[in-house]
Design goal:
By secondary structure, this protein is an alpha/beta fold. It has two domains: about 5-150, no CATH class; about 165-294, Rossmann fold. The chain has eight helices and 17 strands. It has helices at about 70-75, 80, 100-110, 145-150, 180-190, 200-210, 245-255, 285-294, and strands at about 5-20, 25-30, 30-35, 40-45, 50-65, 90-95, 115-120, 125-130, 135, 140, 165, 190-195, 215, 235-240, 260, 265-270, 275-280. β2 (about 25-30) and β3 (about 30-35) form a beta hairpin.
Amino acid sequence: MPKKLSLIMNASIAPLAGSMDSFTGGVYADGIFLRDSLLERGQAAPAPTIQQYLPGTYIYGGCLFSHFGHFIWESLSRLHAIRQCDTWPILFLSPNDKVFHVQKIFFKTLGIRNEIHLVKVPTAVKKLIYSPPGSAIDPLFITDEQLEAMACLTFPREESRTKIWLSRSRVNSGKIVNEEGIEAELEKIGYRIIHPESLPLREQVRLLSTSDIVAGFDGSQFFSFLFARRIRGQFFIFNRREQIADTVIHALERRKITFSANALPVKYVEGARADARFFLPEPDRIVDLLYNAA
């Protein structure tokens, strides 16, 4: 077996029951629950009474979520293992009943041609290729093997100097409510306003990896750079809540990207946790900093 992989004979898998935030499920080997088959917020399901038997060889993929940031950091956490394997099918646990089209496009862009199967009933697998996760949010980490596996896309260097702002102004939650005004001022000093959610993954990665300056409020829109082999410019991160998310900072540090983390005063408007909306009382501070950076 390649590094960090093991072969489990006659594994038992309990499907995910619950939501992305709280769930049960997981993998059993010889009747013993494998704790790292789930995330920290997941709980072991009772040893399953098998309803389905898969006689072939499969790769364990972990938990498949539709949220962009959780998909990159958690659902792709075993990409380091998938890269070492043949084209055997991948088994995922998921709160959803299907693999969404955007997820299929995502896998295709990353060169993953394996069939994707969701485990929806208690399942026994004759041969399960298993690995620990290469990244997680709690506790926060990403391994060297995972970073190497993710950095799979290369783009030519842009000739002209490019400055982009990764906008959250069109999303419904987790945002600075006066961001559009900031964007209008940034356009005046030469920044291109990018709405990542409207772009294919490959284009997101191209823009983040080839631009001289990449700026925006912290969030999962930054994570696309993890798929680039080379990063050209420097990043400027601003808080959209009281503080900047640790995951963004950790990802930038692990890829050794030049960045500036800037925490500015914000005022709470509405919402809870990751969905909260805030107001930035001093938007000119962002414009001034990015003008001088340019």
